[in-house]
């Protein structure tokens, strides 16, 4: 798969945090397959395995290496499964996956989907200069002006200000297919996710987020890849969407 | 800065986990600067600020959003500061920074250094096919054959098998300037770092690692960026290396 920045690294998907050991998407050699199965087997001993939302919980544990993280994930929608269903549908519909920063984009799998993968950062530098807002926030607003976020898989892994900007866009009428937001840190990270959850709930936008200060690019990429994985299972008939 | 894969994204450094809010390297707008100072101020309230090793501890907390992570970092060397000093010197000497996967490479700052930044993944696919070892492990062995790891900043953020392969290389005589290894997960991640620490100690290779299952690409990139940051402070006279 060729990504928009010209990289032809078809193995990107195998490189996201934890995904290197992920049997169905990334592991292409015998040894990696073995690790993959053991790793997900261990996660399944620690996290329920009943619903689509559980798969996101499992992935959060897989990506962070921390069994406790399953309790920090939040699902915004009429049901817990709704954001997972919406995400899988968006992947099947080949909607764009739009990340905040390059690092998250680099973690999105190249396999199992034909979605264009874009990053926000790099856009809106004029706006940032003029207004003094962060470059990531400006980049989200700039892409939003171009209509990029409507029906897209909107992913924020790093920047609280990007999450806040995305919340503003949703409040102003933008409708992503699903939001995956796990910015990390001590300033505004938890608050930005809380605001995203409020706005998303009010506007009917499904979202996967977490509570607390933890999070990050690896987690955001991992959760997004799990949406791709669910879509693959739909395609192969293993999973049926409601 | 132009990276080896042709990307000209000079703002990469501002994109690593947590680095978007990092005043001296990444924050270029007023709003980002404010967040940056508050964020690192909060971290400094939670983590000692006396030694060079403390800066790595601070960064680990900053990157993970978890004050407890400071206790999980391990320093291999005659002193705790040694790997930080060795890393800063390697950066000042413009030695290569070699990451395991694309995602970690994407998180390495483009500012404050003139080191070539390379990734291992993408090399050694023949070896992986032939032997059944993971692609990341094969890629490390392949680069090692080319002598890439000698005197380099060797970074492993994702793949336990890459960390194990790097340990094998060190055992066989390779001498990185410093190792930064924080692979994450339930299978072999903690063990791979333990083995790296043993081999690095035995062979006199300074290393920054962590204990436990947690870790990941964002952390590895963040800690490596802190080495770059220390090097910048040496250049500006704020820090003197022993």
Automatic annotation (TrEMBL), chains A, B:
Describe which pathway this protein belongs to, using the record's wording.
Answer: Cofactor biosynthesis; adenosylcobalamin biosynthesis
| Classification via Gene3D superfamilies | Cobalamin biosynthesis CobH/CbiC, precorrin-8X methylmutase
Domain of life where this protein originates: Archaea
Annotated ranges, domain Cobalamin biosynthesis precorrin-8X methylmutase CobH/CbiC? 34-229
Q: Name one Pfam family in it.
A: CbiC
Q: Which family does it belong to?
A: Belongs to the CobH/CbiC family.
Q: What is this protein called?
A: Precorrin isomerase
């Amino acid at each position: 798969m060729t990504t928009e920045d010209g990289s032809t690294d078809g193995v990107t998907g195998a490189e996201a945090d934890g995904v290197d050991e992920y049997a169905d998407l990334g592991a292409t050699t015998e040894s990696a397959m073995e690790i993959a199965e053991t790793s997900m087997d261990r996660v399944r001993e620690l996290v329920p395995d009943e619903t689509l939302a559980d798969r996101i919980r499992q992935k959060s544990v897989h990506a962070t290496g921390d069994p406790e993280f399953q309790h920090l994930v939040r699902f915004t929608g009429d049901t817990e499964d709704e954001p997972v269903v919406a995400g899988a549908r968006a992947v099947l519909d080949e909607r764009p996956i739009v990340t905040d920063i390059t690092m998250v984009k680099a973690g999105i799998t190249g396999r199992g989907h034909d979605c264009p993968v874009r990053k926000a950062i790099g856009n809106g530098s004029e706006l940032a200069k003029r207004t003094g807002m962060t470059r990531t926030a400006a980049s989200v607003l700039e892409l939003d002006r171009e209509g990029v976020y409507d029906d897209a898989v909107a992913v924020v892994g790093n920047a609280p200000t990007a999450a806040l900007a995305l919340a503003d866009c949703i409040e102003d009428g933008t409708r992503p297919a699903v939001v995956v937001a796990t910015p990390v840190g001590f300033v505004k990270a938890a608050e930005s996710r809380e605001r995203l959850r409020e706005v998303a709930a009010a506007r009917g936008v499904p979202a996967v987020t977490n509570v607390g200060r933890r999070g990050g690019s690896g987690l955001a990429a991992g959760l997004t890849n799990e949406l791709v994985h669910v879509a693959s299972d739909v395609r192969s008939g293993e999973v049926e969407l409601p």
